[in-house]
Amino acid sequence: MKRFRQVAIVFAVSTIPLAFAQQPDPKELIRESIQNYQKAWRTGMKWSYTQTDVTCVDGKTEVDVSTVFPLDGTPYERLISKNGHALSPDEQRREDEKYNKELRRRQSEAPADREARIRKYEKERSFLADLPNAYDFKLAGEDLVNGRAAWIVTLTPRAGFEPTTPHAGLLRHIDGKLWIDKKDLMWARAEADVIDTVNIGLILARICPGAHISLDFTRMSDTLWVPKNITIKGEARILLVHSKNLNEELTFSDYTQNPTASAQVARR
User: Fold this and answer.
1) 44 in a domain, yes or no?
2) Which range of residues forms the domain containing residue 187?
3) Which residues sit opposite 52 in a β-bridge?
4) Would you say residue 19 lies in a domain?
5) 117-125 own/partner pairs: CB under 8 Å, 24+ apart
6) Among the four residues 30, 150, 203, 250, which has the most C-beta atoms within 10 Å?
7) Per-residue model confidence (pLDDT) at position 234
8) Count of structural domains, the chain
9) How far apart are CA 264 and CA 268, in angstroms?
10) How far apart are CA 120 and CA 125, in angstroms?
11) pTM of the prediction?
């Protein structure tokens, strides 16, 4: 029995380094998952999808359904129905006119203007480059997301963080949690909680503490994960005067690669 205990102790001690070695560095997980997310996002820009936007404000619910597709380098969103009904003739005409105007504008752009438009769109996500330095990370365990194993990483704003990209200053006011797929190292789920007032624009709006945002992704392939839905709940002060409860859900579906609609002019 004594010999058995000695063997058991030796075995247990010898496996401790292995157990720790299997625990990844959360910061490196974040870095690699950001790189993979950026690659997937660029690939996803070549796909079209249906976007359903459900908003509830002051007890009134509105549902807008749009098709989003690549139009000469950046996505274009086109409304196709409202509150479960097809657009009226006047609404359809306005959508057609808006689309045809934008299509002609993009097709007639000088190369420098086109590059500037694409850079401006890409810059909206440039704050992700600051994310590894904006937070302290902690590996908080493991979970299953849609039947797939994922690491859970919590994100706590790091004292002294100085943003270097547009919009990265918002990260100071947000706690986060990421579910990172173990196999693909892609984001399977993300959650964010506003812990301090977030200003949007100079006087446009303030998002109040307590607002919650969640984002779920769906796997198209081992290198392509795309958004499935986003929910936003909380309170905002619009123009710093009107207080409104935020309750919005965006659902993304019907992903299709290389749509032909982006090159067609709508009929009037």
Assistant:
1) yes
2) 26-263
3) 65, 251
4) no
5) 117/73, 117/74, 118/73, 118/74, 121/74, 121/75, 123/165, 123/166, 124/166, 124/167, 125/38, 125/41
6) 150
7) 87
8) 1
9) 12
10) 10
11) 0.83
